[in-house]
């Protein structure tokens, strides 16, 4: 049953009581850090428990923020950093970074590994030119006669 909920197969058909019981199983355990799948399992579980039905756009951002707020309650800094990095970077790859101030604050507060921060900053800088209110990127195209 846990596999179905966590992987998103039939999770909507699981009773609220069963989902509540599963939450007690999906908890932070420092000793599990050595298990390769552990951070990914926790991440999938958090998204499954917060998912409101395959969110997109603003709904996907609300879902991400719900998960990040719950992640902030964890004590293991390695787990928190991993969950924040993987969740944020996946969101950014799909939706970009416009109107993501809350996500940005949590990332900058919780992620300190130099390579993670550098990659995030690179992506942030690349997306910043697309933010609302920024000047349009200069461009030229040829019309159907070949004139610029």
Broad structural category: mainly alpha
Q: List the total number of helices.
A: 7
Element pattern in H and E = HHHHHHH
Flag low-confidence runs.
none
Shape descriptor reads elongated
State the end-to-end distance.
61 Å
Strand content: under 5%
Provide an overview of this structure.
- This protein has about 150 residues and is mainly α.
- Helix content is about 60%, strand content about 0%.
What is the gist of this entry?
It is built from seven helices and no strands. The protein has helices at residues 2-6, 16-25, 38-50, 58-71, 77-95, 101-110, 114-128.
Main attributes?
7 helices; single chain; mainly alpha
Give the topology, please.
Elements: H1 2-6, H2 16-25, H3 38-50, H4 58-71, H5 77-95, H6 101-110, H7 114-128
Helix pairs in contact: 3-4, 3-5, 4-5, 5-6
């Amino acid at each position: 049953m846990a596999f179905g909920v966590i992987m998103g197969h039939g999770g909507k058909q699981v009773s609220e009581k069963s989902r509540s019981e599963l939450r007690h199983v999906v908890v932070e355990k420092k000793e599990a850090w050595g298990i390769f799948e552990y951070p990914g399992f926790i991440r999938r579980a958090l998204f499954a428990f917060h998912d409101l039905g395959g969110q997109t756009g603003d709904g996907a951002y609300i879902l991400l923020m719900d998960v990040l707020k719950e992640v902030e309650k964890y004590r293991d800094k390695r787990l928190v950093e991993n969950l924040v990095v993987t969740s944020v970077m996946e969101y950014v790859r799909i939706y970009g970074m416009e109107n993501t101030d809350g996500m940005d604050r949590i990332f900058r507060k919780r992620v300190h590994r130099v390579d993670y921060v550098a990659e995030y900053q690179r992506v942030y800088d690349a997306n910043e030119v697309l933010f609302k209110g920024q000047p349009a990127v200069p461009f030229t195209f040829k019309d159907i006669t070949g004139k610029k």
